[in-house]
TrEMBL record:
Entry's Gene Ontology molecular function annotations: manganese ion binding; metalloaminopeptidase activity
Family, per entry: Belongs to the peptidase M17 family.
Lineage: Bacteria, Pseudomonadati, Pseudomonadota, Alphaproteobacteria, Rhodobacterales
A biological process term (GO) from this entry: proteolysis
Record bears the keyword Cytoplasm: no
Taxonomic source organism: Marivita cryptomonadis
Listed name of the protein: Leucyl aminopeptidase family protein
GO cellular component terms listed in the entry, alphabetical order: cytoplasm
Domain of life (superkingdom): Bacteria
Annotated InterPro entries: Leucine_aapep/pepB, Macro_dom-like, Peptidase_M17_C, Peptidase_M17_N_1
Keyword set includes Hydrolase: yes
Residue ranges constituting the Cytosol aminopeptidase domain according to the UniProt record: 308-315
Length: 461
C-alpha cells in the first residue's frame, strides 16, 4: 500500500471543509444550482459527512466535507479523515476551511484513515488521494503514516503468524530497510548472555525466546527504546480466563510501537544514536513453565518473587532495561502493554507515561498536543515502593491488594534502570476498541508520535 500524499499541483477536485455553523453562509454565496444541490441533499456539516457536487455535465466539480462543531472537533481528532468513506475514489485538494496550523494533522489523519489490514482478506478498495497542502511536509507526513501502518500490521497479526521468530523477522526487515545493524540472542544462549528472566518467561513455549538488539546512527545523543514483545500471553500457570485472553495477540504492542517509532527516527535521519531492544517471548503453559512462588534472579542481581505468572511483561523488560542501562544512554524509553490498571485509570485512548524529569514531561505534553497523540503523566510515587518489596526477595512481581497496579509496575521497572539515567515508561493499550476518525478498530500506535516530536527539545537536537 502506498502511504503518501499526491504532489502539489496535481489536478484534483477542490474540497471545501465546512463546520456546521458555516454551511448556510457558504451555500448562500454560491450559485442557485449549487445552493439547491446542498439543500436538496440536506448537507449539515457534521463530522464524517461529505457531499459531491457535480457540474452541468455530471462530472465532480466540488466536494464538501463536514467539520462538525468546535465542541465535536475536540472530541474527534482527524475530523477530515472521517469523511474518506463517503468520498468517491479520486484526487482531492483542500480549498478552504482548515486553519494553516491544522493542515499537517488533518493530512496525516487522511492517510491514517486509508489503512486496511489486508493480510488475510483481499481488499482492493481504492481510497481517495489528497494533494499535499501548501506548507505541509509531505515526506514527514508519509513517514508518520508508514510508522503507524507498520505498528498496526504487527499488532493485528494473530499469534499463529506473529511469534518471537516472526517479530524478529519484522525487526530484521526494518534494519535492512534502513541499512543498519541487528543482533539477536536466542533460546539457551540467553542464559549464557545473562538474560535469565527473559529465558524463564519464554522457556515453556516451543517458539524460542530471544532478545532483539538493533543499532542505528553514529552521532548525536544515545536513545534506547525497549519494547515488550510478548507475542501471546496465556497468563502462564496463572492462566487467564478466555475473556481476558482474547486480545493477547496485542501483548507485543510495546515492541510494535518502538519499531514504529524507530522507523520515524531512521527514515527522518534524526541526529541520534538509536538502539532498540525487544525481549520477544511467548508466555505459555507447559511442564517447564515458571511457577507462582518461584524466586528468579535477574540480570541486575535483584531477586524477584513470582506471585502471579501473568505479570510476566515486567520480568522480560527488567533484563532488557538492565542491559540498556549498562550502556548509559542519554535517554531510555520503555513501551509496554503492561497493566489493566492503566486502562481502568485513563481508558484506552490516553497513553499514560512515567518520568521523574519535568523537562521531559513538559516536552512530551506539548508535543502530544501538536501531534494529536494524547498522553497523560502518571507519578513514580515513591511511598508505594514498599508495595513491591515482599520481604522474602528483593522485589514482588505482582503486589497483593490490587491498588495502584500501573504505578507499582512502573516502580518495579525503574529498579532496573540506573538512577542517573533519564527514563520514560509508557504503559500503553496498543488497541483501538471501536473505530474512530483516522483510527480503525484494531492495533494502534500510542505515544510514539509524541515522543518523536519531543525528542528535538528533550535531547537538545
Amino acid at each position: 500500500m502506498t502511504v503518501a500524499l499526491a504532489p502539489a499541483g496535481t489536478k484534483a477536485v477542490p474540497i471545501h471543509v465546512l463546520g456546521a455553523e458555516d454551511v448556510a453562509l457558504w451555500a448562500g454565496q454560491q450559485s442557485d444550482r449549487i445552493r439547491t444541490w446542498v439543500e436538496a441533499n440536506a448537507f449539515k456539516g457534521g463530522i464524517g459527512s461529505a457531499l459531491m457536487i457535480p457540474d452541468a455535465a455530471g462530472h465532480p466539480e466540488i466536494a464538501l466535507v463536514g467539520y462538525g462543531t468546535p465542541a465535536s472537533r475536540k472530541r474527534d481528532r482527524f475530523a477530515l479523515g472521517a469523511a474518506l468513506p463517503k468520498l468517491a475514489p479520486g484526487t482531492y485538494r483542500i480549498e478552504s476551511g482548515i486553519a494553516e496550523g491544522d493542515l499537517e494533522q488533518e493530512s496525516l489523519g487522511w492517510l491514517l484513515a486509508s489503512y486496511g489490514f489486508t493480510r488475510y482478506r483481499d481488499n482492493t478498495s481504492q481510497h481517495p488521494t489528497l494533494v499535499t497542502p501548501d506548507g505541509v511536509d509531505a515526506t514527514r507526513v508519509s513517514i508518520l503514516a508508514e510508522a503507524e501502518f507498520l505498528t498496526r500490521d504487527l499488532i493485528n497479526t494473530p499469534a499463529s503468524d506473529m511469534g518471537p521468530a516472526e517479530l524478529e523477522s519484522a525487526a530484521r526487515g526494518l534494519a535492512e530497510k534502513h541499512k543498519t545493524k541487528i543482533r539477536v540472542i536466542t533460546g539457551d544462549d540467553l542464559l549464557q548472555g545473562n538474560f535469565p528472566m527473559i529465558h524463564t518467561v519464554g522457556r515453556a513455549s516451543d517458539r524460542a525466546p530471544r532478545l532483539i538488539d538493533l543499532n542505528w546512527g553514529s552521532r548525536g545523543p544515545k536513545i534506547t527504546l525497549v519494547g515488550k514483545g510478548v507475542c501471546f500471553d496465556t497468563g502462564g500457570l496463572n492462566i487467564k480466563p478466555g475473556s481476558s485472553m482474547g486480545l493477547m495477540k496485542k501483548d507485543m504492542g510495546g515492541a510494535a510501537n518502538v519499531l514504529g517509532l524507530a522507523h520515524m527516527i531512521m527514515a527522518s535521519g534524526l541526529d541520534v544514536r538509536l538502539r532498540v531492544l525487544i525481549p520477544a517471548v511467548e508466555n505459555s503453559v507447559s511442564s517447564n513453565s515458571f511457577r507462582p512462588q518461584d524466586i528468579l534472579t535477574s540480570r541486575k542481581g535483584l531477586t524477584v518473587e513470582i506471585n502471579n505468572t501473568d505479570a510476566e511483561g515486567r520480568l522480560v523488560l527488567a533484563d532488557a532495561l538492565t542491559y540498556a542501562s549498562e550502556d548509559h544512554p542519554d535517554l531510555i524509553v520503555s513501551m509496554a502493554t503492561l497493566t489493566g490498571a492503566a486502562r481502568v485509570a485513563v481508558g484506552p485512548d490516553l497513553a499514560p507515561y512515567y518520568t521523574d524529569n519535568d523537562v521531559v514531561a513538559t516536552s512530551l505534553d506539548l508535543a502530544a498536543r501538536r501531534m494529536a497523540d494524547p498522553v497523560w503523566r502518571m507519578p513514580f510515587h515513591d511511598p508505594y515502593e514498599t508495595m513491591i518489596e515482599p520481604g522474602i526477595a528483593d522485589l514482588d512481581n505482582a503486589p497483593k491488594g490490587g491498588f495502584a497496579g500501573s504505578i507499582t509496575a512502573a516502580l518495579f521497572l525503574r529498579r532496573f534502570v540506573s538512577a542517573e539515567d533519564r527514563y520514560i515508561h509508557f504503559d500503553i493499550y496498543g488497541w483501538q476498541p471501536t473505530a474512530a476518525p483516522g483510527r480503525p478498530k484494531g492495533g494502534a500506535l500510542q505515544g510514539a508520535r509524541a515522543l518523536f516530536a519531543a525528542f528535538p527539545d528533550m535531547m537538545d537536537l
